[in-house]
Design a protein that fits this description.
With 101 residues, the protein is mainly α. It has one domain. 74% of the residues lie in helices and 0% in strands. The protein is built from 4 helices and no strands. α2 packs across α3, α2 packs antiparallel against α4 and α3 crosses α4. The chain is elongated, with a radius of gyration of 16 Å.
Length: 101
């Protein structure tokens, strides 16, 4: 893929990249949550919390209140995955998805 091709489909690649970064940051938060306390002063933990908390606030609206935080983080990972799949299908349906080959 050339740079010109990448830039011509920026409207697909940029949101896809942001969603992927958020998705994998949530997965990192799950893995770190196995080893660290919720109020840990670890700077990586605080960064992961700061990045994922806004998305998790939206996900918490559609998730039962009795759900443990780690399960909510895993739901966030799954929701971000399906949002990326939905975005790809939308772009394919509209005929504006990047072409392969």
């Amino acid at each position: 893929m050339t740079g010109a091709t990448f830039l011509s489909y920026w409207y697909f690649h940029l949101p896809n990249f942001v969603l992927a970064a958020l998705m994998y940051t949530m997965l990192g938060r799950v893995l770190l949550g196995l080893f660290l306390d919720a109020d840990s002063p670890n700077y990586i933990w605080r960064f992961f919390c700061r990045i994922t908390d806004p998305a998790l606030a939206v996900i918490a609206l559609v998730t039962p209140k009795a759900t443990q935080p780690v399960v909510l983080w895993l739901f966030g990972f799954v929701w971000m995955f399906w949002l990326r799949v939905l975005m790809l299908y939308l772009f394919l349906f509209l005929g504006i998805a990047p072409k392969i080959g």
